[in-house]
Amino acid sequence: MTSSAAERWAAALARWRIPDEVATAPAATGFPVQRFADIADLSVTLDSPSRRIATAALPIGGSVLDVGCGAGAGSLALAPPAARLIGVDIQASMLEAFRERALARGATATGVLGPWQEVLDDLAGADVVVSHHTAYGTPELDQFGHALAAKARRRVVLELSAEHPTAWTRPYWQAIHGIEAPSGPTSDDAAEVLREAGIDVEVEHWEQAAPLPPESEEDQLRFLRTRLRVGEERDEELLDLLRDHPRPAWRHVTTLWWAVT
Ligand SMILES: C[S@@+](CC[C@H](N)C(=O)[O-])C[C@H]1O[C@@H](n2cnc3c(N)ncnc32)[C@H](O)[C@@H]1O
User: Fold this and answer.
1) Ligand 1 binding pocket, CB closer than 6 Å
2) Which residue is closest in CA terms to ligand 1's atom 27?
3) Among residues 38, 150, 153, 179, which one has the fewest Cβ atoms lying within 10 Å of its Cβ?
């Protein structure tokens, strides 16, 4: 039986969940605000294809809607020329970090709390809609693409890593749980999902221009415990693994974008 690109995308993402049978701790909930605040602060210091492509479609004084905004890594660097930034996120603490930073850039800032599936319909459109590093958390990527396009007057810009963001933990799956980690999906699979959904997406692959902000050993352990669903009793093994397979400071990134007419 053949499956669609959208079905394959959702199935590939589902495989990144550690099975309940081997887990000894609950699944991860929420993202660490400080980590995403550091990434947002870095974003305004860097030129990137996503920034360039979004800026090219922005009028002076224009507006940007950032979906899954975190602390604003997708939109802060767009103000100026944008004068109005609207962020959507399910974490109130992320929206606080986003608003504080957007105001500091001289933009008017609105934070909208709630899942995009529930809040986007009620929002006014923006000149450019961006969403960075949200695709691998979005099994319904085809619907997401259309929902973003419905809110954009000029362009949609999606940024995602070329591989799943926890691809670097593959050796940990075998060492900690004795199971093989999934092999996909990739940003090329995401582009295929969007094309299949009738979106004329353009693709640019690039390499991040500066290392991601470093994390403390405790933060890395906390991340690995929740991702691998184990308790502190596995910390020594995790530390050994971190020495052999450190979290990469650099990543391959993809920008997917399309014009809205
Ligand atoms: C990996 S972070 C990326 C944050 C930011 N865009 C960046 O690039 O730094 C994903 C963000 O999406 C938010 N999120 C997850 N599911 C969401 C949903 N259904 N609707 C809106 N935001 C969501 C999370 O709370 C988190 O802030």
Assistant:
1) 31, 36, 39-40, 68-70, 73-74, 88-91, 94, 115-117, 132-134, 137
2) 70
3) 179
